[in-house]
């Protein structure tokens, strides 16, 4: 036993992993999935698998949503969690288990990487406590066990990694591991953008402020390279997501103005499994957390009275964390509504309480102020064990184990080949319909619909593209409607020649004219010229970044 304790003391990060296990225990305590508000993510993973199986890289348009009219889902929705989920699915796990594995990864690795970040500023026992506090915040449990927010939860992994890379680049520049950290920073920034674009939009402006606060600014040029590398690497996703937003209706399921939490809700130790509703009547928790509030106030007190004993880099990170915390606190208050109206795209956040992500992140950094205290290591170990145990008991478990498997979510959210009664009850699919769509479909229509033609046969080329033979009975020709929303990338070919198509009514479907007689119709989804260029830029950026990360002569890690 003594040898084990000595080994764990020497490799404290392993102890952190053991302390992190209670956060994921409830994920795998029983088979199937539990009740969460975003359980449609299991179905979205199914759609990711379908598109990958069709060979469409990168995935953009999925075939089955919205009564089989499909949707450019991964043109707008963060793809990385579903890439990871698809990987585990192809390894033999179910859709539900793959989703739970990604959620587990988001919990375990976030605490580990926060530990590595804090080790740049504090001793290993303080860093251990910081990793525990970062993991066991009530909002982290809400993300996983109440909301099932797979993208936002995965984003927590990249926040400490990005700051860690920036700190290393500022300190190293091109020396030693400097080039490697420039490349790693690019990977981490891209990972955040692809994990949850809302969190990236929320966090990256604060990241830009960080190097300005450092006195050692000679290496800012390398930070700019790292930052641009991340943007270039992920540009295949975020540029279409922004510029194609004009092709879908400007509406959201929820209005941000209805979801500002009150200050009382942020400091009241309540945890609930309900929903966010207008006014202060939410049955969902917005509690910041006891450890998080304690380290904030004690850390601020210690920092103010011992400011001169801290190194410049410690002061910089602490002050930056304070800015992050209090600006995020303000953005969650209704008094910031004027900013929500004028800052572009901020309304798509839907919920101002999403800034709890940055509150949780900054809270662990306040432990920097504790490092100069001569506190026995066992105090930090004891607190870490207590926080882990209490948080598991109070927060990190679902309200109920529904034990639903893949078939339930496919039946509920995938309406092809036939829409279930459960699917027909869904009023919203969290999909902003194309701008020319006059109304949402009400049932599954034939693959080709309209008048004046007969379908002789239909062959699926893959899960997305179609080859068919049709007979037009009208001597003057007719309009053929294809059951997919018209979106850039669709190509219609009749008898081997590309023909023009247009957006039909009332569903915004693909429509095209065909003359009388028999015709071979081939409809495929391809990358547009713009997207091909962006894909090339992202691929080229990846090769450059890998060259930096794996170059000879750079050794060492976190």
Question: In short, what is this structure?
Answer:
The chain is built from 23 helices and 9 strands.
Structural class: alpha+beta
Average pLDDT over all residues: 90
* Strand order, largest beta sheet: 2-3-9-5-6
C-alpha termini separation: 29 Å
Given as residue ranges, the uncertain stretches (5+ residues, pLDDT < 50) are none
- How many strands in all? 9
CATH topology of one domain: Immunoglobulin-like
Helix content: 40-55%
Morphology call: elongated
Radius of gyration: 26 Å
Total number of helices: 23
User: Strand fraction band?
Assistant: 5-15%
In the CATH scheme, the class of one domain would be Mainly Beta
CATH architecture of one domain: Sandwich
Largest β-sheet summary: 5 strands, antiparallel
Explain this structure:
- With 558 residues, the chain is an alpha+beta fold.
- The protein has a domain of 83 residues: Sandwich (Immunoglobulin-like).
- It is 53% helix and 9% strand.
- A 5-stranded antiparallel β-sheet has the order 2-3-9-5-6, with no helix packed on it. The protein has a 4-stranded antiparallel β-sheet with strand order 1-4-8-7, with no helix packed on it.
- Helix 17 runs antiparallel to helix 19.
- 45% of the residues are buried.
């Amino acid at each position: 036993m003594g040898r084990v304790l000595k080994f764990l003391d020497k490799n404290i990060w392993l102890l952190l992993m053991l302390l992190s296990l209670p956060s994921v225990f409830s994920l795998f305590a029983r088979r199937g999935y539990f009740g969460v508000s975003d359980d449609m993510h299991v179905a979205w993973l199914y759609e990711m698998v379908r598109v990958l199986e069709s060979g469409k890289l990168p995935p953009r348009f999925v075939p089955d949503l919205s009564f089989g009219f499909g949707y450019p889902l991964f043109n707008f929705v963060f793809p990385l969690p579903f890439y990871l989920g698809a990987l585990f699915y192809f390894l033999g796990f179910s859709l539900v288990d793959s989703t739970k594995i990604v959620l587990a990864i988001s919990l375990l690795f976030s605490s580990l990487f926060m530990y590595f970040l804090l080790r740049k500023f504090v001793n290993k026992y303080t860093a251990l406590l910081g990793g525990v506090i970062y993991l066991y915040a009530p909002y982290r449990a809400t993300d996983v066990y109440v909301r099932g927010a797979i993208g936002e939860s995965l984003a927590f992994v990249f926040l400490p990694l990005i700051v860690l890379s920036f700190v290393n680049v500022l300190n190293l520049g091109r020396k030693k591991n400097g080039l490697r950290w420039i490349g790693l920073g690019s990977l981490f920034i891209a990972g955040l953008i692809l994990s949850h674009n809302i969190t990236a939009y929320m966090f990256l402006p604060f990241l830009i402020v960080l190097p300005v606060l450092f006195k050692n600014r000679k290496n800012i040029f390398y930070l700019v390279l790292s930052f641009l590398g991340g943007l270039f690497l992920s540009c295949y996703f975020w540029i279409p997501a922004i510029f194609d937003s004009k092709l879908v209706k400007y509406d959201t399921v929820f209005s941000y103005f209805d979801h500002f939490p009150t200050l009382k809700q942020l400091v009241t130790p309540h945890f609930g499994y309900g929903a966010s509703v207008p006014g202060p009547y939410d049955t969902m928790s917005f509690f910041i957390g006891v450890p998080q509030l304690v380290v904030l106030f004690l850390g601020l007190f210690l920092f103010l009275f011992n400011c001169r004993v801290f190194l410049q880099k410690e002061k910089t990170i602490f002050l930056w964390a304070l800015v992050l915390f209090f600006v995020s606190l303000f953005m969650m208050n209704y008094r910031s509504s004027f900013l929500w109206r004028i800052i572009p795209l901020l309304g798509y956040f839907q919920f101002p309480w999403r800034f709890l992500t940055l509150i949780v992140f900054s809270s662990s950094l306040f432990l920097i102020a504790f490092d100069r205290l001569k506190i026995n290591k066992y105090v930090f170990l004891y607190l870490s064990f207590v926080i882990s145990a209490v948080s598991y008991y109070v927060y990190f478990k679902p309200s109920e184990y529904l034990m639903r498997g893949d078939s339930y979510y496919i039946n509920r959210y995938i309406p092809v080949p036939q829409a279930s009664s459960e699917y027909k009850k869904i009023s919203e699919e969290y999909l902003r319909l194309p701008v020319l769509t006059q109304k949402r479909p009400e049932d599954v229509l034939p693959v080709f619909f309209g008048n004046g033609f007969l379908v002789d046969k239909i062959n699926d080329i893959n899960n997305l593209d179609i080859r068919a033979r049709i007979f037009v009975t009208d001597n003057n020709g007719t309009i053929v409607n294809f059951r997919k929303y018209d979106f850039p990338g669709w190509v219609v070919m009749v008898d081997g020649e590309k023909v023009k198509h247009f957006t039909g009514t009332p569903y915004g479907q693909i429509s095209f004219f065909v003359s009388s007689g028999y015709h071979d119709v081939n409809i495929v989804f391809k990358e547009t010229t713009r997207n091909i260029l962006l894909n090339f830029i992202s691929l080229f950026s990846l090769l450059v970044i890998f060259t930096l990360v794996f170059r000879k002569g750079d050794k060492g890690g976190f």
